[in-house]
Amino acid sequence: MPKLAALGGTPVAENGIRIEWPEIGPKEREAVLATLERREWCRLWSAEDSEASKFEREWARYHDARHCVAVANGTVALMCAFRALGVWHGDEVIVPSVTFVATADAVGLCGAIPVFVDVDPDTYQIDPAAAESAITDRTKAICVVHYAGYPADLDRLKELSDRTGLPVVEDCAHAHGTEWRGRKVGAHITLGCFSFQQSKSLTAGEGGAVITDSQDLADRVWAIHNVGRTRDAARYTHSSLGGNFRMSEWEATILRCQMVRLQEQTERRMRSAELIAEGLAQIDGLSLLKPDSRITQRGFYFLIIRYDATKWDGIHRDVFLRALQAEGIPCGTAYGWPVYKNPSYASGGVPHRVMDCPNAERITAEEQIATWNHLLLHVRNAILLVEACAKIRENIDELRRLAQG
Could you tell me the CA-to-CA distances from 54 to 43, 47, 68 in Å, in that order? Predict the structure, then answer.
């Protein structure tokens, strides 16, 4: 009788994984009703008592930044950041090859050219040396992604920025609550951008934010997100090119309530990740991303498991993944391939440039397994994940059978 669920055995998570997201309660209901009755559902001006303005102050404070501008979503947060830096038609912005497509699309939507570079094989974050090698006289900025909530090497990136004069945009869509050397990510170098889309660790369904320590950049982002108006402009006075990228009062209301939960949720996710790391240390051929003492708090979007086929008799990652999914563990390959392999880029429809990316190619095709941040909110889920991995290891002979079809 087979033991692996993929061959007819009983799944480890037979009763399912517990995922309830977002976590809500009476405070969210009361706050939404209060916004409803206030009858002001959009912040058109810079009213200090608006929900959006309050959220901006709270988010800046939580993420150790001086300024925050709340916007409609994470993609326009990046676009506003790039435009504030003067990124325009024909400019180049260096981006990592392993990320969600919106990181690069935001560059293209500004009329600029994303330049894809390789990632570090131990951390999956942009390789600063690869970024430096891609710099040309057309390079206007470097965009880094704290992929899966694991921070890019901000020490090396700041040194690169200081030496070259290139600004650095931190795409923090995966990294709510992540700290580098005791300071939250986002405003370590130039600008940081966040998404509050449904799957993120802080969500209002949609929404975004740009944070910075620069008053000048914050003012530029403000004007760009608010149809070219400066903060003190008369109602129909528009001093620059901008769009309607404003966050609604509904989103800001929900985010302010959800923010109260964020730190405790981050700590729960970290505890679950620690249990998984301890468990996988006993299973040959599986590990998490490389530990780094400079990461003083880890926000999660994905929990990344690294699969080493050489320790699994050459059985491909995708076979192990099928077995793990059959055991009831929600997991996948994250975004599946480097961004430049998406049809929009591979077809030549979007102008771009690709540097040599062997790590990104191998990681996405053979190594990366991802499970989601919300699974980590419950310790029992973490225990089941480790039990499922151990079960597959103990039944590697059945895994071979699965590989053979």
Answer: 11, 9, 10
